[in-house]
Structures are given as structure tokens and as C-alpha cells.
Q: What sequence folds into this?
């Protein structure tokens, strides 16, 4: 059996309900869970290092200056709470570029704990899984995240960014060519890149997803809801690829879609 985890990044207080429902209704109607990496307190002015605005903050939010908590969007909360197929995981705090690429322990602890508090105050279960913005985790933040969460989902792991006590397990993982590994109670999951992305050729995207799933016991499929709506308009060919993926995942008896919680609780064990 092959296992797939759908991870959609960047849901936040500014996310339109209509976008999530357009993308994931075919998943939800087929009983396929979707993990939303959710920003607890989004910075509406967040920018990339080259100065471009992040597209998960729509132009309509350009006038906002203060961070916006996830609990402020009542329509979004009602939608997510009424759709049990969605599972919320913690995606940083503000989604600033370097917010977890730091060694300031007390500030990192504050950011982690405030993010968890905001999600639970919005009515979501305490998250078991952490996704760092831009996959940027320092050695210090990696240790602190592992103390608080049962799963860390990221693109890759680098030796110099891991606590020294983790190095032997990391070397063994590299020698065995394992995408996923474990330190004490924390499962560390890497993914094969953002295969469902507008930056990839649409005509080969579905086949690349199938190939990636065939190569791993557990595959984390990462995508970003806002990529499907450039300038607020739906990219129908791209959306069709996502929906074709949902149909395949629902109908292939050799593939099962699971949640990060299934990994956190060992309902699905990593080899």
C-alpha cells in the first residue's frame, strides 16, 4: 500500500472560502482528507526577499498593516469546522521569511506557542504537525519544534541545521535513502518538491505525481491554494490537474490518502 498526504499551504484569515471549496470539494466528496498548513496570525504585508508581495495576501488587503488572526474570519472558520475532511496543521506564525531561521530561543518559543494558541482559540484541535514558512528552520528552532510537535513536514533536512545529537540518525537515514525518519516521538517527513505547482508543465504534472507516489511508502503532496487563482481568477487547466489527481487517488486501490495525524499517532507506521 502507498500512502499520500495532501498538504495545501498558506490558508490564513484572508483566504476566500470559495477558493478552498473550488479546489477541494472533489476531495471532500470522495472522503479524501486535506491537510491545510494554516498561518495563525498572517502578516498582510509579507514580502519575499526580492520585494514582491506574497500572493496569499490578496491586493484587497494591501491597506492592512497589523497581523490578522485566523479567528477573525468567521466565514472561513464556519466552513472549516463544518468540513471534517480538512485538518489544520500549524504553518509558522506570521509567515515572515526568516521567522524560524533564528537562534533566539525565547522569541522562537513565543512564536510557536502563540501560533498554537491562536489555532486552538479558533476552535481547532491542538496541532500535531508543524510546517515552517519557506522550509527555513535553524538548529535551535528544529529542536524547539520537535519538543512541541509529533510531525515536522519540510522539503529537506540539512546536517548543519539539525541538533548535533540527531546527526547519527540523520547519517543512517541518508545511507538508507529514507525520505522520512524519527527522533524520539517526532516524525520528520520530507517531500519530493511542489509537484502540483503552476511553475511545472501542466501536461506532465499528473504523471509526475503518480511517479512520485510509486517511489515512496508515504508521499507528501504539497501545493498552494493561491497558485490556482492568479490575480484572483481561476486557472482552470491547473485546477483540472488537481481534480484529476483526486479522482485517481479515490479510485486506485493501491493508494490510500491519510492525514499527518495518522503518522503522529502511528496509525500508519513509517518503515
A:
Amino acid at each position: 500500500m502507498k500512502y499520500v498526504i495532501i498538504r495545501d499551504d498558506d490558508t490564513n484569515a484572508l483566504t476566500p472560502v470559495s477558493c478552498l471549496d473550488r479546489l477541494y470539494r472533489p476531495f471532500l466528496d470522495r472522503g479524501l482528507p486535506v491537510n491545510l498548513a494554516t498561518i495563525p496570525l498572517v502578516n498582510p504585508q509579507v514580502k519575499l526577499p526580492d520585494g514582491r508581495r506574497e500572493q496569499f495576501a490578496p491586493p484587497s488587503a494591501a491597506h492592512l498593516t497589523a497581523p490578522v488572526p485566523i479567528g477573525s474570519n468567521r466565514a472561513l472558520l464556519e466552513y472549516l469546522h463544518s468540513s471534517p475532511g480538512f485538518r489544520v496543521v500549524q504553518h509558522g506564525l506570521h509567515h515572515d521569511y526568516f521567522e524560524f531561521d533564528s537562534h533566539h530561543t525565547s522569541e522562537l518559543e513565543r512564536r510557536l506557542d502563540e501560533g498554537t494558541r491562536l489555532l486552538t482559540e479558533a476552535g481547532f484541535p491542538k496541532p500535531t504537525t508543524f510546517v515552517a514558512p519557506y522550509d527555513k528552520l535553524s538548529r535551535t528552532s528544529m529542536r524547539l519544534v520537535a519538543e512541541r510537535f509529533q510531525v515536522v513536514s519540510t522539503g529537506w533536512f540539512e546536517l548543519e541545521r539539525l541538533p548535533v545529537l540527531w546527526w547519527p540518525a540523520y547519517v543512517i537515514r541518508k545511507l538508507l535513502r529514507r525520505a522520512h525518519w524519527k527522533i524520539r516521538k517526532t516524525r520528520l517527513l520530507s517531500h519530493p518538491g511542489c509537484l502540483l505547482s503552476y511553475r511545472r508543465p501542466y501536461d506532465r504534472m499528473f504523471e509526475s505525481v503518480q511517479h512520485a507516489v510509486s517511489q515512496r511508502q508515504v508521499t507528501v503532496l504539497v501545493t498552494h491554494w493561491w497558485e490556482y487563482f492568479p490575480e484572483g481568477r481561476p486557472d482552470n487547466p491547473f485546477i483540472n490537474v488537481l481534480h484529476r489527481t483526486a479522482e485517481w487517488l479515490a479510485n486506485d486501490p493501491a493508494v490510500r490518502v491519510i492525514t499527518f495525524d495518522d503518522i503522529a499517532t502511528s496509525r500508519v507506521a513509517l518503515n
